[in-house]
Design a protein that fits this description.
It is a single chain. This protein is mostly helical and 117 residues long. Helices cover 74% and strands 0% of the residues.
C-alpha cells in the first residue's frame, strides 16, 4: 500500500507574513471607510449650508467654510510637525483629528464650489 503524498501549499506563508497581510487588509479597508465617511459628511454639510442660509448674506456658504478650512489645515500642519519632532501619542491623535477636519472642510468647500444641490 502506498501512502498518498502530502501536497505542498501553493503559497507558503509564515506567521509574520500572515500578520502583515491582515494589517494591510484592515488598514486598506479602514482607509476606504474613513474616506467614504469624509465624503458623506462633506456632502451633508454642503447641503445643510445650502438649505439653511444664515441671516448674513456674506457668510452664506463660502464665508462660513473657508475660515474653518484654513484653521483646521494650519492646526493639522502644526500638530504634524510637533508629532514628527516629539513622537508623542497625543500629538499623533490630534494630527489625525485636525487632518480629518481639514479634509472635511475642504471637501465641503469643493462641494459648494461645484454647486452641490
Amino acid at each position: 500500500m502506498t501512502d498518498k503524498p502530502t501536497e505542498k501549499p501553493r503559497w507558503p506563508i509564515t506567521a509574520e507574513e500572515w500578520r502583515l497581510l491582515v494589517i494591510t487588509f484592515i488598514g486598506g479597508l479602514a482607509s476606504i471607510l474613513v474616506g467614504a465617511a469624509a465624503l458623506g459628511i462633506a456632502v451633508a454639510l454642503g447641503r445643510l449650508i445650502r438649505t439653511h442660509p444664515l441671516d448674513v448674506p456674506d457668510l452664506n456658504g463660502w464665508g462660513l467654510v473657508t475660515p474653518w478650512a484654513v484653521l483646521w489645515t494650519l492646526l493639522a500642519v502644526v500638530t504634524i510637525r510637533l508629532w514628527l519632532m516629539n513622537r508623542a501619542v497625543w500629538e499623533r491623535v490630534l494630527a489625525f483629528v485636525f487632518s480629518f477636519l481639514a479634509i472635511l472642510s475642504w471637501l465641503t468647500w469643493i462641494g459648494l464650489a461645484a454647486g452641490l444641490h
